[in-house]
Amino acid sequence: MSKTYRIILSGGGTGGHIYPAIAIANELKQRHPDAKFLFVGAKDRMEMEKVPHAGYDIKGLWISGIQRELTLKNLMFPFKLISSLFVSRNIIKKFKPDVVIGTGGFASGPLLYVAAGKQIPSLIQEQNSFPGVTNKLLSKKVQKICVAYDGLERFFPEHKIIKTGNPVRQGLLDIQSKRAEALAFFKLVPEKKTLLILGGSLGAKRINELIEKEIDYLQTRNVQIIWQCGKLYYEAYKINGNTKHVQVHAYLNNMDFAYAAADVIISRAGASSVSELCIVGKPVIFIPSPNVAEDHQTKNAMSIVKEQAAILIKESDLDVDFENKFSQLIESKEKQNALSENIKKLALVNATKDIANEVEKLLNI
Ligand SMILES: CC(=O)N[C@H]1[C@@H](OP(=O)(O)OP(=O)(O)OC[C@H]2O[C@@H](n3ccc(=O)[nH]c3=O)[C@H](O)[C@@H]2O)O[C@H](CO)[C@@H](O)[C@@H]1O
Question: CDD domains under this entry (predicted)?
């Protein structure tokens, strides 16, 4: 009888850490239908809703990141950490995992720390060109580190690094065939160009402000708009959905349809978004968040822009540059095609399979 593998996946806080974990779990489940999976995330964060929605059990730790200023949340941090280490120890004792996989975000810290201490094989996946604190700390403890960008030996032990790319959900791999279904799903007009606006998993305040201000201008460019504004901002921006050919969404649960319907995309440059956009292969304008550690979204976007595969507008330049750059793109089919062709070349389509192969090696399969 073959062994029933027991696998813990831990990560979360934002979609950028959750979806890679779900994609890895789905691939392993397909290969080993009997395997048992458990997710560990942070209480009150999006993973507590998104992971069960994907069909997996999840346990939440009482943990959060450290802020730079002295806040009550920060003063609580040592207590949260001790509690999370204690709960992680219990989870591991009870579930007895054969392997533990971390996909970043603070919840994965205590769990992988405890697992590594107990000599349980472990792997982390770093989505960004600049790693977060949790993965930097864990890199010393784990066996393998799957990355999506070159140059990460600056932060991680070189012999552990494997370049795989970021896992992307299966449904996003073949969006070309979904165009007609997608247009019908969003009730779009096939004759009009569709502009998709993405603010990352949480929504982006500055992008929302921009689109609201530019709505009349965008109407003159004859585009219809799918605008994902983020759950937090929905109440403030949903009124814009009264404008003809503009639809505002708090969150898009059907990203495959959104990408399939789009002709041009404006997006934040979170790691998963960037990886998905390479696979999707549409012309993109990146507006990276300047409020993330080490400005890593700008670095993520630059890795695409330097290959002439996307346009970047810094938040601070939006008032001056947006209309010019958008008009140049929307009016030139040639430019749109060139960006599409170039960004597709950067896609790492086998990421999920390659990571699953590395997990299997840790399981001695
Ligand atoms: C503000 C912040 O801290 N952002 C970080 C966060 O971004 P964020 O969580 O936004 O991460 P990503 O851009 O990497 O991924 C967003 C994911 O959410 C999905 N999605 C998004 C919107 C939506 O309506 N529906 C939907 O399904 C996207 O398809 C994608 O899979 O984690 C990333 C990965 O570590 C980092 O690079 C980002 O800097």
Answer: GT28_MurG
Protein residue with its CA nearest to atom 1 in ligand 1 = 292
Where residue 3 falls among pLDDT bands split at 50, 70, 90?
confident
Is 16 marked as binding a ligand?
A: yes
CB atoms within 10 A of CB 57: 12
- CATH code for 171-344? 3.40.50.2000
Q: Please enumerate in sequence order all residues whose Cβ is within 8 A of that of 274, keeping only pairs 6 or more positions apart, or say none.
A: 286, 300, 301, 303, 304
Determine the pLDDT at residue 204: 98
Interface confidence: ipTM more than 0.90: yes
> Residue 352 pLDDT more than 90?
yes
Helix (H, G, I), strand (E, B) or coil at 248: strand
Domain boundaries, the chain: 6-168+349-362, 171-344
DSSP string, 174-241: T-GGGHHHHHHHTT--TTSEEEEEE--TT--HHHHHHHHHTHHHHHHTTEEEEEE--GGGHHHHGGGG
Ligand 1, residue 274: give the atom nearest the CA.
Answer: 13
Mean of pLDDT values over 232-251 = 97
Quick: pLDDT tens for 60-72: 998 877 665 667 7
The DSSP element (H or E) to which 227 belongs, if any, is: strand 223-228
- List of residues 6+ apart from 300 with CB closer than 8 A: 128, 129, 149, 269, 270, 271, 274, 288
Q: Check: CB of residue 125 under 8 Å from CB of residue 101.
A: yes
Confidence of residue 332 (pLDDT cuts 50, 70, 90): very high
How much distance in Å is there from the Cα of 328 to the middle of ligand 1? 27
Question: For the domain 6-168+349-362, what is the CATH superfamily, name and number?
Answer: Glycogen Phosphorylase B; (3.40.50.2000)
pLDDT at position 61 is 92
> Is the pLDDT assigned to residue 1 strictly greater than 60?
no
Q: Comparing 6-168+349-362 with 171-344, is the CATH topology the same?
A: yes
